[in-house]
């Protein structure tokens, strides 16, 4: 790991991984010790998204690895390069009923790009560097290595150990023929759209995306929300998608977020181009699109965007670019937000938060949760943003915020979450205090699991609301204070600016518990 440039790992200790803890002392690798294994993976995910480096999570055997499966799935769909290291029972005791013996490969292999168990102490360097390169390459994602305890304790002759190459991303480029055909089709289009996945969003690849959009004279839109075309941060985007005469998917998988490519969500006459590093995703596109698939090509998305930018496209599409930008920026709601309530509504909270983000030199927005998270994505913005992503899993916001503070200690970090979300990893406020992490956790507290509450209200009626409420007296600010962070409470709209301003000046983590009027996610 040291040769790969790893300086920080996120971990929860356990018997089988203590040799790694000891080795980190000599390697100069910082261990951020968390309170739950899932938190370690969420932090590694955020680290990878913010730095572009491999994020490393280290957990113990059996219950350690099973505790972190949900965020592994989340990281896979977020296209985050993660190395998940887990302790394991000794090789010498295989099949004997060893302590915490578990076939970890069978548990994780469907969630990661590759899952392997170390077989030789002499191969550790080679296996580790190969795994990191794999995590970084193609469509980035998690790789899992299970480390038997006896191998970690074994003495190895360094001169005989197999040394791997320094890990690096390996990219597959478009063939010359494919690139030329796609460039010519883009040049002929009047209203092209380029859709990309999470790894090429505006936070993680801003220069690449901006340059490609300028050269292609085509809007490039990242899709990374589980709400797909109803992603509130995309405003009225579905309206312009239906007008596009060419849709180019560059590393954007054809899935539920695009209504599986059905013509109802697109211009039925539009040509569709699919560029993807995964043959399986290309085969899916062939099956779903049929004759509407103009061209498919195997290539990595970043390499493809660079190659497509190596061309002189005729003319300008200023009007189309402005129309798409205007649609995405449009926040006209189908139903106006009700702000005439005893407690502030979600829109008012977001507007107050945006003032702090606008004043910050290096703002980072984290959005997590159900309905409140959607308001945050619609009405808060920052050059760097992390959301809970395509998996739809919630609960990682505090973990993302801690990792963000460690990765960029001078940033102004605001994590927006509901009261359901904060409960998943609330003990990480203790981690934040111990690690001197600086961020603001804004908890929109409506005393319910509001996404599910709204489903019940919409589908079954007001007399069938059941099992989705939370305690009205819950004080997450006091919980955070008890764990070493700063707590603040607000229940009136005119209190928001003051508590947020005070939190922004604080040198550590702050939890602002806002008594909020729960509302359905914004619809445009």
Describe the 3D structure:
By secondary structure, this protein is an alpha/beta fold. It folds into 3 domains: 8-160, Thiamin diphosphate (ThDP)-binding fold, Pyr/PP domains (Rossmann fold, 3-Layer(aba) Sandwich); 176-329, Rossmann fold, CATH 3.40.50; 346-515, Thiamin diphosphate (ThDP)-binding fold, Pyr/PP domains (Rossmann fold, 3-Layer(aba) Sandwich). It has helices at residues 18-27, 37-51, 63-66, 69-77, 104-108, 124-136, 149-153, 176-188, 206-216, 237-241, 279-289, 301-308, 318-329, 346-359, 371-379, 397-407, 419-422, 428-434, 450-459, 476-482, 496-505, and strands at 8-11, 30-33, 55-59, 82-88, 114-117, 142-148, 192-196, 220-222, 246-250, 271-276, 293-298, 363-367, 384-387, 412-418, 439-445, 486-490, 509-515. A 6-stranded parallel β-sheet has the order 2-1-3-4-6-5, sandwiched between helices. Strands 13-12-14-15-17-16 form a 6-stranded parallel β-sheet, with helices on both faces. Strands 8-7-9-10-11 form a 5-stranded parallel β-sheet, with helices on both faces. Helix 9 (206-216) links the parallel strand 7 and strand 8. Helix 2 (37-51) packs parallel to helix 4 (69-77). The radius of gyration is 24 Å and the shape is globular.
Give the key terms:
single chain; 524 residues; alpha/beta; Rossmann fold; 6-stranded parallel sheet; 17 strands; 17% strand; globular
